[in-house]
Amino acid sequence: MRVYWLRPNDVPYDQRYPDGIARVMAEAQQYYKQKLNRWYGGMVHELGHTFGLPDSSYTDGTPMSASFYNYPNTHFNEQQKNAIRNGPHGSFLF
After folding, report:
1. CA quadruple 77, 80, 86, 90: dihedral, nearest 10
2. By percentage, how much of the chain surpasses pLDDT 90?
3. 20 in a domain, yes or no?
4. What digits encode the pLDDT tens for the residues 12-56?
5. What is the number of domains present in the chain?
6. Cβ pair 24, 6 in contact under 8 A
7. Residues in contact with 42: Cβ distance below 8 Å, sequence separation at least 6, in sequence order
8. Does residue 56 fall inside a structural domain?
9. Comparing C-alpha atoms, which of 69, 67, 39, 63 is closest to residue 49?
């Protein structure tokens, strides 16, 4: 991946961005929103391990499965929530 540092006064002269820095920012936000959701989902998955949850054996819509790639459209099921509540860190969290 290439990274380009653009100063606001550089962009108006770039033919790829006739709208200036506003277009650059809009493209960056769209790209990084998609990429960041995967990382946020991965962090939630790893926090689940911290709270004692195992990986799911199939894609079940929870962050402990490959569904974490769909973050924020993923959630812990009731069994997982109960395991967190009743685990060693449950009293700290709730």
Report:
1. -90
2. 30
3. no
4. 555 665 666 666 667 666 666 667 777 888 899 999 999 999 999
5. 1
6. yes
7. 68
8. yes
9. 63
Rounded Cα distance between 13 and 3, Å, is 18
- pLDDT tens-digit readout, 69-85: 888 889 999 999 999 99
| Residue 35, both tokens | 């990429």
In a domain, 39, yes or no: yes
pLDDT beyond 90 at 5: no
Q: Which two tokens stand for residue 12?
A: 């108006």
Task: Please choose, from the candidates 32, 37, 41, the residue with its C-alpha nearest in 3D space to the C-alpha of residue 66.
Answer: 41
Position 10, amino acid: D
HSE, side-chain direction, 13 A CA sphere, residue 74 = 23
The model carries a pTM of 0.62
Residues spanned by the domain of 67? 29-93
Is residue 2 assigned to a domain? no
Q: Which pair of structure tokens corresponds to residue 52? A: 């004692």
